Amino acid sequence: MGTENPGRPAYPGRPATTPFGAPPPPNVRPFSSTPPIPGSGPSTFRPTTAPPSQANTPFASSGPMAETEAPGFQPRPPSTFSNPSAAPPPALPSYGSPAPGARNFQRFSTPQFTQAPQGPPARPPTMGQAPFGTPPAALVPGAPPAFRPTANVPAVPMGLPPQRATYAPPGGSVPQLPSESVPSVPRPNFQQSYPAADPSVPTGRPTVPPLFPGYPNQRPHAPPPATLSQSPFAARPAGDVPAPVVASPFQTHQGGYVQPHTVPAPFGMPPRDPMQHSASGPPSNAMYGLMEDFNSLSIGSVPGSLDPGVDSKALPRPLDGDVEPTSFREMFPLNCHSRYLRLTTSAIPNSQSLISRWHLPLGAVVCPLAEVPEGEEVSIVNFASSGIIRCRRCRTYINPYVTFTDAGRKWRCNICSLLNDVPGDYYAPLDAMGKRVDFDQRPELAKGSVEFVAPTEYMVRPPMPPLYFFLIDVSVSAVRSGMIEVVAQTIRSCLDDLPGFPRTQIGFITYDSTIHFYNMKSSLTQPQMMVVSDLDDIFVPLPDDLLVNLSESKTVVETFLDSLPSMFQDNVNVESAFGPALKAALMVMSQLGGKLLIFQNTLPSLGVGRLKLRGDDVRVYGTDKEPALRTPEDPFYKQMAADLTKYQIGANVYAFSDRYTDIASIGTLAKYTGGQIYYYPAFQSASHKEKLRHELARDLTRETAWEAVMRIRCGKGIRFTSYHGNFMLRSTDLLALPSVDCDKAYAMQLSLEETLLTTQTVYFQVALLYTASCGERRIRVHTAAAPVVTDLGEMYRQADTGAVISLFTRLAIEKTLSHKLEDARTAVQQRIVKALREYRNLHSVQHRLGGRMIYPESLKYLPLYGLALCKSTALRGSYADASLDERSAAGFTMMALPVKKLLKLLYPNLLRIDEYLLKPSASAQDAESTMKARLPLTMDSLDSRGLYLFDDGFRFILWFGRMLSPEISQNLLGHDFAADLSRVAFSERDSEMSRKLCALLQKIRESDPSYYHLCHLVRQGEQPREAILIMSLVDDQIGGTSGYVDWIMQIHRQVQQNA
Ligand SMILES: [Zn+2]
């Protein structure tokens, strides 16, 4: 497939149906966000700031410059820059008056997704008929099963029914009454949706239409067990609940009531995990078969106290880390892996009223380039002559959920139901089942994730080469920190591993009070440095040779990097002309786009974009002026971010200072260009070198998608209304992502367009159009289906805490930009309260809930993660609890994290490791089990005779108990074993134990490589240093923050109010 067309004079025009047919928007609102969700009422979270795009410009463009018509990959910066505004080179902005919105993307026609002939892109146009009036063929019994929910799913073993436990204070004195353990109370509402499996439940319930008309035989009560045993949906058939009722060893609170009801998992899905808690004793066998619709927590008397309370040990904790939801794929085996797409609930509500009762965010978290799950692959499909098969109307890409009819000559779009012709080249006959005979050879029909090779219609210029441009602060503080040397060495060591050889381009600018350009022409033996000191009228000297082909100029580049640290070693310049240097970098990069890596050590002090010290007036804190400190002060940064995005430049900011550098402003560059912030406060080469080296190397060598745009489509009747993360929104639903990689995730909220959804299934399709480093233009497509439900209980059952928390986190951080921190925290708590109150109301009719707190199994960790979020660096405490920069950096980082990584940051791992280290011949299995034995994050977990490892995905903290065997300390710390640990750097020592520990740390780092875990040492009682661990113990009540128990009590009290 021709993807590069260097000699091609012009690129194809835009036939109405080609993907790039849309004109650029007349106006760009780069920072507009999305409107509040209709129907959600006054959200407690900050609604977005700008109105949505009008329908007349739904396809704002992005992407490579159409008019520049780069004939090849030679960087060809504009020839004259001495007066850029007078003689404008192709599409270069002038910077005299940065006026957001004044510049638009007119010059940049876009590799955007295809325009639908009418209506907004993510959904089909409004049609006279209801496209979903006729169920897709696959849903009609007997019709060709386009998706075969039972086809590839292993049968779920019909083993023991799940167990669950009701927790109670250990000292509680009221034994569970066996009689109450027997399900006996009919629950009309519940039965309407899910008849109880327990035979003792009255059977005279009204018959209700199946929730899943397409899956009648999957109803738990319907088929005989024999059939069920072969069905993947038959985890809990009706007859398998032995429900032996014996006295439970678990004691309940004073109410003594144990919710006994046994309920099959919805759709016969595998049983939910029994609630695990290492400290609460084994779940009772007596509870066997008594799995109920909800979990509960006894809120009663704490032993030895008159205060009502809850036993801390009984509280649920995510000690297994994030467990990716599986129900998504169990219901629809052809769905993409949840690593790519997670829904906050995989049961989509059918009505506005259901949504409003759900209270949690309804939406998705997408990580389009997530690392491929083990044992899977993303097939690359090249349609060649037939072109990529897409729906003529809504532009959905062909996927496993489309259905073929008319002997294989037509296919029906699963998103909008339109019947499309099958192109001649793509035709294949159908078998007796209505399945294409070539099904097995077609990954796009068999897999939820696939990558299409894009033909030339998907490009408006040849795919860009990977390009890395470095903007390096060389002022005195940068020199003294040692940062320059580490950066230069790391870049040099990665040169052979940069993606895209032999097309990769590279360039450098350094700056202090002046700007230094480097000519790296391959014919030179040494780079030539050119200094520009006129900061008001930036021009680029020698525009042709500042950006060079790495393979041609490698020697010059290496010479430059070798000499860079010494070039400035005596620099005493304290100024930073960051803004002008940034503009210069944009000028150099604008022809091609690429990745801009910024290394900033001081507050920008000269030229445009200079910033002033903010936040030193404590009177501002706690007032309405405080949130402004968390937003960029100077519009220059937002405008620059808009311009960078426009030119396909993604910026990553590395910040190093121990002083205020206004990351709120500088970080904007990364936020709106799909980039990332790396923050190394008070960087010192001696202690932070490894972290910087690892993270920079990963940034340089990880697989990157260039000049990308992303869109998520969904079925008729629903719509994504707001997007949250690091990107710029172009048009209503197109995310501009100049560079993307596996470490970036995006969240979006969903709303119903109509009051009632009449379909039984909704489909989602994420499409990322990008240029691969190899130079091929590709479209990565992830498709998933989810059932539409009429039952609120089902929404809760199918909830995904990880996705909910990802959205919560992004919404809360956004809220801190316009509200006090406290307001953001309250909003988190309030939504949890509302959700649990609604949930309680759902069950209080049929159950005597007493003082118990109840919650769905799926959301058992929600309160704890909510608490952890409120205690995170971005949200915690007041101004004194985290510096402005620290908070901003944390916020930018958390906005981009994939679910798993975010959850680990919120609730880190705490492991006891001294026993493992002492074991004479510890096996790999021992290491494995040590890594899995996670402990609750409380002081109570720490034994002063132990050695503990804390791991939040960004750093390690090794905690040495006061009574720890001296042998261990000596082995691990050598002569420093008794020293003040704040002065001791962790390193491998000459002992078996030390090697063992380093191997363990290495193993963890390899399993979680996005950031480097720097190892901090802490000794019990050594203040103030120990605080770095103590403050991270989420469960504890520290420094005015709630502990887990108080938090639960607060939530419980509020849930009961007006319940
Ligand atoms: Zn369609």
Your description of this structure?
With 1059 residues, this protein is an alpha+beta fold. Among the domains are: 324-371 and 703-794, Immunoglobulin-like, CATH 2.60.40.1670; 387-446, SH3 type barrels (Roll); 467-702, Rossmann fold (3-Layer(aba) Sandwich), CATH 3.40.50; 800-907 and 1035-1058, Sec23/Sec24 helical domain (Four Helix Bundle (Hemerythrin (Met), subunit A)), CATH 1.20.120.730; 909-1033, 3-Layer(aba) Sandwich (Severin), CATH 3.40.20. It has 26 helices and 33 strands. The strands form eight sheets. Strands 7, 9, 13, 22, 24, 25, 27 and 28 form an eight-stranded mixed β-sheet that branches. It is globular, with a radius of gyration of 30 Å. Residues 124, 391, 393-394, 396, 413, 415-416, 418 line the site of zinc ion (ZN).
Shape by Cα distribution: globular
Q: Cα-atom Rg, whole angstroms?
A: 30 Å
The major pleated sheet works out as: 8 strands, mixed
Using the 3D structure, state the CATH architecture of the domain at 467-702. 3-Layer(aba) Sandwich
Question: What share of residues is helical?
Answer: 10-25%
Listed once per kind, the bound small molecules are: zinc ion
Q: What is the rounded distance between the termini?
A: 62 Å
CATH topology of the domain at 467-702: Rossmann fold
Q: Which percent band covers the strand fraction?
A: 15-25%
Q: Supply the CATH class of the domain at 467-702.
A: Alpha Beta
- CATH superfamily membership of the domain at 467-702: von Willebrand factor, type A domain
Q: Number of helical runs?
A: 26
Q: Based on DSSP secondary structure assignment, what is the total number of beta strands?
A: 33
Mean pLDDT: 77
Helix/strand/pairing category = alpha+beta
